[in-house]
Amino acid sequence: MFDFDSFHRAMAGQTVLCIGDLMLDEFVYGEVSRISPEAPAPVIAAKRSETNIGGAGNVARNIAALGAKCIFVGLIGEDAAAAELKAALAKEPRIESVLVADGSRPTTRKVRFVSEHFLTHMLRADWEITHPASGATEQKLIDTILPLIPRADIVLLSDYAKGVLTARVIRNVIDAARKASKAVIVDPKSANFAIYRGATLLTPNRKEFSEATRSRADSSESIAMAAQDAMLSADCEAILVTQSERGMTLVPRKGEAVHVPAFPVKVRDVSGAGDTVVAVLSVARAAGADWEDALRLANAAAAVAVAKKGTAIVTPAELRRQILPHASLAAEEKIVASGGELEARLSDWRKQDLRIGFTNGCFDILHPGHVKVLTAARGACDRLIVGLNSDASVKRLKGEGRPVQTERARAEVLAALEAVDLVVIFEEDTPLKLIEEIKPSALVKGGDYTREQVVGHEIVEAHGGQVILVEVLAGFSTTSLVDRARGGKA
User: Fold this and answer.
1) Does the global pTM surpass 0.90?
2) Known binding site for ATP: residues?
3) Where among 299, 323, 347 does a domain terminate?
């Protein structure tokens, strides 16, 4: 169960060793208004251009943007593009770049011509050599990488098939990382997943996965089936298949496959979105997130990246806004009534295939124990609904003198929390009727309950959902706080 704020703090202390194909990305923006008289081709009137650190270098930039440290190893030529990349990397305070030079190869450079008006790529020009690095350069890479592994919390291989990640380099790195008990995440390019044998996670896109497994990979079910043999071949713990607008499917070697839908965003440019995904996965795993939490973070980050132009980085603030979109709503916008208003929100979320969570309580005086349960509940879903006992309900349950605060005051305090997407006040003593209406995928309560004691567990489990019990924070109780405030002994 994921707490974004805890992740944000934890990721700043992580170090990712990123190895892969470095390239210089250039974007030329202009307007297309006519066809060339010399040939049936559009003429772009160039207005401006931008250059970025691309390829595996963009993975490194995304790692650094999240607040983590990146040790980056790449290959360059001895040319102007190499000098530009070295200068750009030197300006990144969280990236320690260790570049191997090979004068016999050009530095990979890609120039994209983009229509400013339509935001579509018209043409891409590549300067590159894609054959594997020479034996001498290969050895230089290995000698450079291996001493860096003990300094890293996790190792990431970003394979663009430009010659850096040869079979020998891959084998030496994975074997050394496993010997040092370091997880290895691979963004693969080869259709032979066996060359990445021993990696922890492979992250192919749907096309790459389909070619590697010779499967259609047209549904999460078919991906899950094909992934079993692929994981045996690669001896990996999990495979994550990215599917653009279809979302992502994670298949662990142990446990059930998890599919998350893509966020409904306006796509401006998909360049580098895969870089963002593997960067977030690496930092999240290094920071202690489990597979599903890391998957959901990466999915949210991809939505941010594709909504930007060019090869883009994603910051923690942008990631938070994507994960917690309702955090910016006014409190009154989050407080809804059961019935039509609630059903409208549920319908909208279900159309987006979002996972809906539910928890409930009186929340008379909000304390850290409540916050822990609410934060954990939000980490288990995409949207969290909190059922709040009405004043009359609290009085029946807690006795005279309660609640201390009115239902409206309690609802507004809850609605002000980032973790909470909706607050629904209910009149009954239990939220059973509300749970029947919502049919949540996750029903969350404090660990002082057993599963059988949780009201509505039968309803949730009958619809394929799960009951999640969160360990309570010792020393916090609303009743004892009220008694203390009123001069009691508690």
Assistant:
1) no
2) 205-208
3) 323
